[in-house]
């Protein structure tokens, strides 16, 4: 780790005004390890952990709002989330391990947009809105590639809004080493509208599987996906899984998500 | 006999310290004036060092000194050694290249040591290291054995053209070939034994210290064998004579073999401490552990098994290539030779065996002993071949094994070993009963109804441990004897200190060794302390590896306790005013035959020290004895493991559903600790079979250099184990112990792979059997048939 300065922000405005060339620190589960390895070297950190405005979970009957600094364990254990979108609570309960879940935050995960993270798939499938200190961004516009988002410099996520769905589930095949998603598929159904989002596999990050959406719109069952293949081109391949294997797993996980929804 | 003595499942005395964070590890040790070392490591697998510019780094804040290979050479610091001489088929010696503690002119693997920066703080050392400018001339790298042995491949060492370090053989080639010529059936198998990275919980660490007043060196280090470290650093590397060199290995958090060896970093820290006249500390970070701890396994083997018309095995022929990495680690040469080929007879009568082993230099981290060391590799060859042979011959794999078991003891194999005792049939039968093998067909059908493939695999392993008779290993090329030492110090009030040459780094010696004393002297284990890991306190000893601390280390303690008992009886004869021959000692009490006169052990200890009741010229005061124990044979733990698992053909995920282990470790001191050793060993073996594997890319970069990519077994990957035992006491040590530390890791990989191949219906899978590999294998298998 290189030397850096640390500012514990007291409000969203304070955080945004004081970050400058520095970085926001949420749960720190990506940033701190990369700093320790000297792969990231921010000179200034603005710590969000004491910003009360960024905490809390609420629901208005049609939209679930999760403030950015909500820990994964809070989302997983929230009665509000479990009632509104139970599959989202289950997703949060399956992120990493207990230590990660008690530090990592939804805002940090969505801001980082790691291509193997779970929340981006939920945001995309549920058609979430990413709320920042200055605007509202639809999930379809927000995720723009590996670790790349629509956020501007200094822009801070304050909350994620998830509109309710008739059905939602997420099925993940874990990378056996890191336990991140080798392939994760989130499926959401609202009336005749079905959205399927895939994380872990895409070489450009999370993406929607529109062929599957079309099939499931007419028949929301695993059998509707029989014979539907994802092309291996455009998918990641590494020592844990080739692109071909990931393509196969997308089909398997999509069926399992539909079955669980 | 006390309720804490031999055979009692007492909880480990040391665990309170460990689980409440009160252990004292090397990284907990900080010395006054201490500076910190940071090693600049090679980013290239193979390169010439054209120049090293230290000017900017030397000027950086806090820098005390920066040393390179030139400084090591100028100080005539000896190279790191390989302590076991192996000879080629033609009788010529192995072709070893130099192994300097800091690279001299050339780097040979990613992580090789280019320079050490010593600074007031670790951060300063690291900052300064970033200012060192090394001009490399990058050479082509040979990252695996196939590349290294290709004609015209670049040589890692000039001393070993074509990268062949040795070309060794064992057994009767002509007799074996003749038996194959007459065979009714020959089973052939190509086997890869995957490369593993040890990953002890505590990384390696060192604090070197120089005392100018006494001209003495002290090295605090994460070692399984501090005396061996001192011997090597003194006699071979030449840092200081032994009497001015103290090596301390305090609490050590796991070794698995990787902390046997004498590494560059520890050597440099203690050498540099004298150079800068300040204590020098280094603790590996996890990346350094991945890059530079000696790796394990990494064999490629072709093996053949000949059987006759009656289904009897007639011969075994094995050809193995073993990866040594870029330099020879301390015992690297012995692992694929004398720790491997002599175990190729397994539990079986095999009249003719021939093995040839080619050791290969590559541009990768050094490879050396890792839990089992050669024996897991041998067991994997034998138990895969036996299983496949049974399948090819249409025989039940268990019954095929049973029909070929050694049943008469002692049994001389064609490959050195003389098995002393065992009952392989008993282990197999008990394991089958405990496992409910009879119910497998119904369980398989139940799995099939869920679309899952179920398989069952056996592994009937044998290993040689309790290493080892000194003269025997000397005749095979070992540079040291493998006896063990002990001193028993009885204090005046009857408490006992045991000074042992063994070293505990997770084995629970503070408990088991005390249990032996408790049994022998009739005192509670809390009245016994175990002193180890400090060359200034403990007499010369050989340390802990090869499952030797029970069979060899405790045997030495037992021998010293014999002397204590004999001496105490003499004292008791004076105290109790009886002739020595009438004194009996049992349950901590001395009695006089035929009388009610008695004295307890503590009172006799006190009398030994106050020396009022006997003539101090005829009988020496005090009660302290020492012993060295040299084993008369290896010990031969053996047993049967059965793995039953389920495969999800849609994903290739393997779930172990049931595991039965029946081991014969001879007599058992503490069944709780022994069962824990079995659990841990199986976890590592399952790790090898399903999860772990070091991967280098073609340029020699380690892809699996963190837990993001190297899959360590987790609790969720492992089943509950059914552990049972059969016991045939070992005749070659006074306690009848065989050793249990490595058995699980040795037995388990073939059990897993035999179960997977049983489920798949074909043999085409390699370790680690990752989900993708199993998914692909399931595509090409007749699994529908298998599932029926």
Would you summarize the structure shown here?
In chain A, the strands form 3 sheets. A 5-stranded antiparallel sheet of chain A has the order 4-5-8-6-7. Chain A is α+β, with helices and mostly antiparallel strands and 261 residues long.
Q: How are the secondary structure elements laid out?
A:
The complex is a heterodimer of chains A (261) and B (788).
Chain A: E1 5-8, H1 12-18, E2 23-25, H2 31-36, E3 44-47, E4 57-59, E5 63-67, H3 72-77, H4 79-84, H5 86-93, H6 98-103, H7 106-112, H8 119-126, E6 129-132, E7 136-138, H9 139-142, E8 157-163, E9 167-174, E10 181-190, E11 193-199, E12 207-208, H10 210-218, H11 243-260
Parallel strand pairs in A: 1-3, 2-3
Antiparallel strand pairs in A: 4-5, 5-8, 6-7, 6-8, 9-10, 10-11, 11-12
Chain B: H1 15-19, E1 35-41, E2 47-53, H2 55-58, E3 63-68, H3 69-74, E4 106-107, E5 113-119, H4 122-129, E6 133-138, H5 145-149, E7 164-171, H6 173-181, E8 185-196, E9 205-211, E10 216-221, H7 226-236, E11 245-248, H8 264-276, E12 280-283, H9 286-292, E13 296-307, E14 313-325, E15 352-361, H10 375-393, H11 397-404, E16 411-412, E17 418-419, H12 424-435, H13 440-449, E18 453-462, H14 470-475, E19 484-490, E20 496-500, H15 509-521, E21 528-531, H16 549-575, E22 583-586, E23 589-592, E24 598-600, H17 601-610, E25 624-629, E26 638-648, E27 653-664, H18 671-691, E28 721-725, H19 743-760, H20 771-779, H21 783-787
Parallel strand pairs in B: 1-12, 10-11, 14-15, 20-21, 27-28
Antiparallel strand pairs in B: 1-5, 2-4, 2-6, 3-5, 7-15, 8-13, 9-10, 9-12, 13-14, 16-17, 18-26, 19-20, 19-25, 22-23, 23-24, 26-27
Features:
heterodimer; A: 261 residues; alpha+beta; five-stranded antiparallel sheet; four-stranded antiparallel sheet; 12 strands; 33% helix; 23% strand; B: 788 residues; seven-stranded mixed sheet; five-stranded mixed sheet; 21 helices; 28 strands; 29% helix; globular
């Amino acid at each position: 780790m290189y030397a850096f300065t640390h500012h514990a922000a007291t409000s969203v405005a304070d955080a945004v005004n004081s970050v400058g060339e520095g970085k926001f620190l949420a749960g720190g589960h990506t940033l701190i390890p990369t700093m320790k390895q000297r792969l990231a070297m921010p000179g200034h950190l603005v710590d969000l952990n004491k910003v009360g405005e960024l905490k809390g979970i609420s629901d208005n009957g049609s939209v679930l709002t999760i403030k950015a600094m909500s820990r994964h364990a809070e989302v997983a254990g929230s009665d509000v989330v479990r009632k509104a979108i139970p599959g989202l609570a289950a997703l949060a309960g399956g992120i990493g391990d207990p230590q990660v879940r008690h530090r990592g935050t939804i805002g940090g995960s969505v801001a980082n947009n790691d291509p193997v993270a779970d929340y981006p798939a939920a945001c995309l499938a549920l058609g979430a809105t990413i709320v920042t200190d200055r605007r509202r961004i639809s999930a379809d516009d927000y995720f723009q590639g590996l670790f790349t988002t629509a956020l501007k410099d200094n822009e801070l996520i304050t909350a994620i809004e998830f509109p309710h769905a008739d059905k939602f589930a997420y099925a993940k095949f874990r990378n056996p080493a890191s336990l991140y998603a080798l392939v994760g598929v989130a499926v959401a159904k609202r009336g005749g509208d079905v959205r399927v989002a895939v994380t872990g596999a895409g070489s450009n990050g999370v993406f929607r599987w529109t062929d599957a959406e079309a099939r499931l719109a007419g028949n929301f069952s695993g059998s509707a996906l029989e014979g539907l293949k994802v092309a291996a081109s455009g998918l990641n391949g590494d020592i844990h899984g080739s692109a071909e294997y990931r393509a196969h797993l997308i089909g398997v996980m999509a069926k399992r998500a539909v079955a669980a929804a | 006999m006390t309720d804490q003595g031999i055979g009692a499942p007492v909880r480990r005395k040391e665990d309170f310290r460990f689980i409440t964070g009160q252990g004292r590890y090397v990284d907990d040790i900080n010395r006054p004036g201490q500076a910190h070392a940071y090693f600049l490591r090679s980013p290239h697998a193979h390169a010439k060092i054209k120049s090293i510019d230290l000017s900017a780094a030397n000027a950086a804040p806090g820098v005390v000194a920066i040393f390179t290979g030139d400084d090591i050479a100028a100080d005539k610091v000896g190279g790191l050694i390989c302590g076991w001489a192996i000879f080629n088929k033609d009788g010529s010696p192995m072709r070893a290249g130099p192994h300097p503690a800091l690279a001299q002119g050339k780097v040979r693997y990613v992580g090789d040591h280019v320079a050490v920066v010593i600074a007031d703080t670790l951060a300063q050392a690291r900052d300064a290291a970033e200012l060192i400018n090394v001009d490399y001339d990058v050479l082509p790298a040979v990252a695996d054995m196939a590349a290294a042995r290709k004609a015209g491949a670049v040589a890692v060492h000039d001393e070993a053209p074509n990268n062949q370090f040795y070309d060794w053989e064992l057994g009767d080639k002509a007799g074996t070939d003749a038996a194959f010529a007459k065979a009714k059936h020959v089973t052939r198998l190509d086997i890869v034994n995957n490369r593993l990275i040890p990953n002890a919980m505590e990384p390696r660490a060192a604090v070197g210290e120089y005392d100018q007043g006494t001209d003495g060196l002290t090295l605090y280090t994460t070692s399984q064998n501090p005396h061996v470290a001192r011997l090597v650093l003194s006699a071979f590397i030449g840092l200081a004579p032994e009497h001015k060199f103290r090596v301390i290995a305090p609490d050590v958090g796991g070794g698995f073999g990787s902390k046997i060896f004498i590494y560059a970093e520890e050597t440099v820290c203690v050498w540099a401490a004298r150079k800068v006249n300040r204590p020098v500390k280094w603790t590996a970070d996890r990346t350094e552990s991945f890059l530079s701890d000696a790796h394990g396994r990494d064999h490629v083997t072709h093996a053949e098994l000949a059987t006759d018309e009656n289904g009897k095995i007639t011969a075994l022929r094995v050809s193995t290539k073993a990866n040594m990495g870029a330099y020879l680690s301390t015992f690297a040469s012995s692992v694929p030779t004398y720790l491997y080929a002599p175990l190729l007879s397994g539990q079986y009568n095999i009249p003719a065996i021939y093995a040839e082993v080619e050791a290969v230099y590559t541009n990768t981290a050094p490879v050396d002993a890792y839990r089992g060391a050669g024996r897991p590799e041998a067991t994997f060859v034998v138990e895969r071949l036996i299983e496949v042979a049974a399948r090819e011959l249409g025989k039940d794999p268990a019954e095929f094994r049973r029909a070929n078991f050694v049943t008469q003891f002692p049994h001389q194999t064609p490959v050195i070993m003389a098995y002393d005792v065992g009952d392989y049939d008993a282990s197999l039968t008990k394991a089958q009963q405990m496992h409910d093998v009879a119910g497998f067909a119904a369980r398989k059908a139940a799995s099939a109804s869920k679309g899952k493939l179920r398989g069952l695999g056996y592994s009937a392993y044998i290993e040689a441990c309790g290493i080892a008779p000194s003269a025997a290993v000397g005749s095979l090329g070992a540079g040291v004897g493998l006896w063990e030492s002990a001193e028993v110090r009885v204090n005046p009030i009857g408490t006992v200190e045991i000074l042992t040459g063994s070293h505990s780094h997770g084995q629970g010696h503070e408990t088991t060794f005390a249990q032996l004393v408790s049994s022998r002297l009739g005192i509670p284990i809390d009245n016994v302390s175990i002193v180890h890991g400090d060359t200034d306190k403990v007499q010369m000893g050989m340390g802990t590896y090869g499952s030797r601390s029970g069979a060899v280390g405790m045997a030495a303690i037992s021998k010293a306790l014999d002397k204590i008992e004999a001496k105490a009886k003499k004292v008791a004869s004076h105290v109790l005013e009886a002739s020595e021959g009438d004194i009996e000692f049992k349950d901590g009490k001395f009695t006089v035959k035929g009388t009610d006169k008695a004295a307890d052990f503590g009172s006799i200890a006190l009398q030994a020290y106050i020396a009022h009741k006997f003539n101090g010229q005829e009988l020496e005061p005090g009660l302290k004895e020492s012993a060295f124990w040299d084993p008369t044979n290896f010990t031969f733990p053996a047993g049967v493991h059965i793995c039953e698992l389920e495969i999800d053909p849609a994903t290739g995920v393997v779930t172990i559903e049931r595991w039965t282990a029946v081991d014969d470790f001879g007599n058992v001191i503490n069944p709780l600790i022994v069962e824990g050793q079995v659990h841990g060993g199986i976890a590592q073996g399952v790790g090898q079979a399903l999860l772990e594997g070091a991967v280098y890319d073609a340029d020699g970069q380690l892809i699996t250099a963190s837990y993001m990519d190297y899959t360590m077994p987790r609790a969720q990957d492992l089943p509950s184990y059914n552990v049972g035992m059969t016991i045939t006491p070992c005749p070659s040590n006074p306690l009848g112990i065989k050793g249990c530390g490595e058995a699980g890791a040795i037995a388990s990989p073939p059990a897993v792979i035999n179960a997977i191949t049983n489920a798949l219906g074909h043999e085409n899978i390699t370790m680690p059997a990752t989900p993708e590999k199993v998914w692909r294998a399931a595509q090409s298998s007749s699994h529908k048939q298998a599932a029926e």
